[in-house]
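R.M. (postdoc): so does anyone remember the format we settled on? I'll just put the C-alpha cells first.
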C-alpha cells in the first residue's frame, strides 16, 4: 500500500534546512519549537531515515536529508502553485466565447475540456451564431473572444487556418445530381451568396429548398437527401458527407478561420483561453480537422 508524505512536515523540514535551526524555522512558520521538532521526528519515522545531524550545535542535513531536500522543494512548489491557481480570485469569473456553428466541432469541445481542467473556477459561456452576429456582439463588448469564418481578416484579428469550402449532402445521397440544384442555407450564412454566384457562373440552375435561421433544420433537410449544403473541409457532421461530384459542381473558395480577442487580454485568463484555441488549431495541422 502506498504511503503519503506529510506536506506540513516537509515544509518544516525545508524551513529548518534553509534557516539552519528549529528556533528560526519555528518563527518563520509561526509555530512553536516543539511543533516543528515533532514534525521533523514524524517525517524521519515515516521514512525510517535520519534526516538531521543533531550532534553539533548547528543542525545539519545528513546525506539522506540532502537528497530529500530537492524533492521536498519540488513538492511544496507544486502544492503552492496548485493552491494559488485554483483559489486566487484572478482565476474566477466568466468568459464569453463566440464561435460560428460550423467550426464548433471538432476543436472547441477539446478546448473547453482542457480549459476547465486548468481553470475549474472560471465559467466559459459558449455563444454559437453567425460570423456577422458574432462580430457585432464582439464590437459591443458582449464577447471576450470570437472565432469567425471570413474571406479576409480585419484589423486586430489573426488567421488561425484557411480551409476550402466543400459540397456536403446526405451520406450516399443523390440530391447533388438534381437540376435545379436544391440548396439548404441559413438566411444569415456568410457562404450563401458566394455559392449562388459560383453556380450562376458555372451555368447550373439552383433553387432554395429551405431557408431557416436554425442550423438543426438545415441539417435535417440535408440528411434527408432533400438538398445540399456547403461547409468548410473537415467540419461535416456525422449525418452528412462530402459530395464526390467529380466536377459536376463548381469548386468553391477558401475561407479563413480568424480569432479576435478583446483588449487588453495579455496575461489574463482570456489570453490563456485564446492560447488554447490557437494551439488546438495548430496542433491539428489543419486542414486535417476531421
Amino acid at each position: 500500500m502506498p504511503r503519503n508524505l506529510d506536506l506540513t512536515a516537509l515544509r518544516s523540514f525545508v524551513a529548518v534546512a534553509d534557516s539552519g535551526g528549529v528556533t528560526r524555522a519555528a518563527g518563520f512558520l509561526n509555530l512553536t519549537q516543539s511543533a516543528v521538532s515533532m514534525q521533523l521526528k514524524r517525517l524521519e519515522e515515516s521514512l525510517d531515515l535520519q534526516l538531521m545531524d543533531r550532534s553539533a550545535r548547528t543542525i545539519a542535513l545528513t546525506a539522506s536529508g540532502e537528497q530529500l531536500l530537492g524533492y521536498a522543494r519540488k513538492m511544496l512548489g507544486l502544492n503552492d502553485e496548485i493552491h494559488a491557481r485554483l483559489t486566487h480570485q484572478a482565476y474566477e469569473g466568466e468568459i464569453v466565447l463566440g464561435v460560428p456553428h460550423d467550426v464548433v466541432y471538432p476543436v472547441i469541445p477539446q478546448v473547453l475540456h482542457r480549459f476547465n481542467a486548468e481553470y475549474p473556477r472560471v465559467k466559459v459561456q459558449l455563444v454559437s451564431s453567425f460570423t456577422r452576429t458574432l462580430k457585432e456582439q464582439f464590437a459591443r463588448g458582449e464577447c471576450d473572444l470570437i472565432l469567425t469564418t471570413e474571406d479576409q481578416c480585419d484589423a486586430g484579428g489573426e488567421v488561425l487556418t484557411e480551409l476550402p469550402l466543400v459540397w456536403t449532402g446526405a451520406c450516399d445521397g443523390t440530391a447533388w445530381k438534381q437540376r435545379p440544384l436544391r440548396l439548404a442555407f441559413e438566411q444569415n450564412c456568410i457562404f450563401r451568396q458566394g455559392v449562388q454566384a459560383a453556380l450562376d457562373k458555372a451555368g447550373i440552375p439552383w433553387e432554395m429548398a429551405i431557408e431557416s435561421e436554425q442550423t438543426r433544420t438545415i441539417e435535417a433537410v440535408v440528411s434527408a437527401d432533400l438538398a445540399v449544403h456547403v461547409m468548410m473541409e473537415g467540419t461535416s457532421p456525422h449525418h452528412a458527407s462530402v459530395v464526390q461530384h467529380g466536377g459536376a459542381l463548381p469548386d468553391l473558395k477558401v475561407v479563413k478561420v480568424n480569432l479576435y480577442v478583446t483588449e487588453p487580454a495579455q496575461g489574463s485568463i482570456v489570453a490563456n483561453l485564446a492560447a488554447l484555441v490557437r494551439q488546438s488549431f495548430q496542433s491539428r495541422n489543419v486542414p486535417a480537422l476531421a
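R.M.: ...and that's the designed sequence above, right after the C-alpha cells. Also worth knowing: The two ends are 44 Å apart (CA to CA). Confidence is low (pLDDT under 50) at residues 285-290.
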